[in-house]
């Protein structure tokens, strides 16, 4: 049989190669990969052109926007580099107070630890980033662990976990996730080394947190929402509100008033006018409400920890658990006003027992400062000798 060479196909392939070569020679970055359908996802993270290794730094792809959250999700004291890419000539839009991202959007979250003395991993509070728009992320100062992508395709969002190799040159798609033994210093200011198992979730476990309801199918972004993004970020040209930056760049529409938009607390750094209640509620919103909401996986618990939950039994005040079992820690109610040490909520935040700790995924360590914040909030609530007597309480 004689092989048939399809000249037009070869010409197109040569044109793609030549364009990439020209762009590289001119110092221009190639556009990130637009993948609106199909499941032939790249094996290597670098193929997405969202992040790239250039010498001794990690840089962002063309038109990829970095962002940070007001109160971040705790993940075993890891730092995170978060990015957003919206395809050319597309916009995200605000609908009913929520940001709707167009098909083709890619959201990335890279987990890393700062290093000292070339090898020792350091704990990070509040995910303080070492990334700068001018210099990127310095690879001699960090250990890259994993990068999680959320890709918006025509039939919905897909979660893709990539694990960084030992050489720190690229990350490989691992559907099954992984576990690695890490040792971190600097937790709570201690110089002692803390060994633990860092868990990288598989694709289904990613859906476990990002699914909006208990079908565990409809994956959606958690971080890049108005109340989380409404803060300043230092760009190459200076400091500006992230929502304002997205609107000026033509990437976001439908938000008329940034000043009056919803805004979680800037924690742990804080703003002068933020109350203890707002800081604690923001922490619970960022770390717990993806499941504990009226549509989430934990909706049958009746405990809702979103920012708009009223300050009553729905939030856990004097609420007895429905089916917590040993997860109650022999404590009577979710929140006992004035008594954090007798509240189920703080027990589940502190414990490391499988099946009892909350969140169920994403941590192997307890977040001491997070527990202290929520405990302080509970302890300052008005109470008497028996604050939950009579079966009801409002605060």
Structure summary, number of beta strands: 17
* Count of individual domains: 2
Mind describing the biggest β-sheet? 9 strands, mixed
Element order, helices and strands? HEEEEEEEEEEEEEEHHEEHEHHH
**Separation of the first and last Cα atoms:** 82 Å
Give the proportion of residues in helices.
Answer: 10-25%
Helix/strand structural class: alpha+beta
Structural write-up:
The protein is an alpha+beta fold and 395 residues long. The protein folds into 2 domains: 32-263, no CATH class; 265-395, no CATH class. The protein has 7 helices and 17 strands. The chain has helices spanning 7-26, 203-210, 226-229, 242-248, 276-287, 344-350, 368-379, and strands spanning 51-54, 57-60, 65-67, 79-85, 92-95, 98-100, 106-116, 120-122, 137-138, 142-153, 156-164, 171-173, 178-185, 194-200, 232-235, 238-241, 252-253. Strands 3, 4, 7, 8, 10, 11, 12, 13 and 14 form a 9-stranded mixed β-sheet that branches. A 3-stranded antiparallel β-sheet has the order 1-2-9, with no helix packed on it. Strands 6-5-17 form a 3-stranded mixed β-sheet. β10 (142-153) and β11 (156-164) form a beta hairpin. The longest helix has 20 residues, at 7-26. The radius of gyration is 23 Å and the shape is globular.
């Amino acid at each position: 049989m004689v092989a048939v060479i399809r000249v037009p196909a070869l010409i197109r392939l040569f044109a793609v190669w030549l364009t990439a070569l020209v762009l590289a020679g001119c110092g221009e970055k190639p556009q990130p990969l637009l993948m609106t359908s199909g499941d032939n996802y790249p094996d290597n993270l670098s193929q997405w052109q969202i992040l790239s290794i250039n010498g001794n730094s990690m840089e962002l792809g063309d038109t990829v926007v970095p962002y940070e959250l007001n109160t971040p999700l705790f993940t075993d004291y890891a730092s995170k580099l978060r990015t957003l890419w919206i395809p050319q000539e597309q916009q995200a839009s605000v609908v009913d107070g929520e940001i709707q991202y167009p098909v083709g959007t890619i959201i990335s979250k890279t987990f890393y630890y700062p290093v000292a003395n070339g090898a020792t991993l350091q704990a990070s509070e509040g995910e303080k980033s070492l990334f700068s728009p001018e210099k990127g992320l310095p690879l001699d100062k960090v250990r890259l662990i994993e990068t999680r992508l959320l890709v918006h395709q025509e039939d919905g969002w897909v979660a893709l976990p990539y694990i960084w190799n030992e050489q720190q040159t690229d990350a490989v798609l691992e559907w099954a996730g992984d576990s690695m033994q890490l040792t971190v210093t600097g937790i709570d200011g201690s110089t002692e080394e803390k060994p633990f198992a860092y868990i990288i979730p598989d694709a289904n476990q990613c859906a476990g947190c990002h699914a909006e309801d208990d079908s565990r199918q409809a994956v959606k972004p958690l971080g890049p929402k108005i109340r989380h993004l409404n803060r300043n970020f230092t760009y190459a040209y200076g400091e500006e509100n992230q929502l304002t930056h997205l609107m000026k760049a033509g990437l976001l529409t439908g938000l008329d008033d940034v000043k009056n938009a919803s805004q979680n607390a800037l924690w742990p750094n804080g703003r002068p006018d933020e109350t203890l209640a707002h800081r604690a509620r923001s922490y619970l919103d960022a770390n717990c409400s993806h499941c504990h909401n009226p549509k989430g996986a934990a909706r049958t618990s009746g405990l809702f920890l979103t920012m708009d939950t009223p300050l009553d039994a729905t939030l856990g005040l004097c609420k007895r658990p429905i089916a917590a079992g040993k997860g109650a820690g022999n404590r009577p109610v979710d929140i006992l006003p004035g008594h954090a040490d007798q509240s189920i909520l703080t027990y589940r935040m502190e414990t490391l027992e499988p099946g009892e700790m909350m969140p169920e995924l994403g941590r192997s360590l307890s977040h001491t400062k997070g527990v202290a914040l929520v405990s302080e909030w509970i302890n300052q609530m008005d109470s008497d000798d028996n604050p939950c007597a009579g079966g009801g309480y409002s605060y």
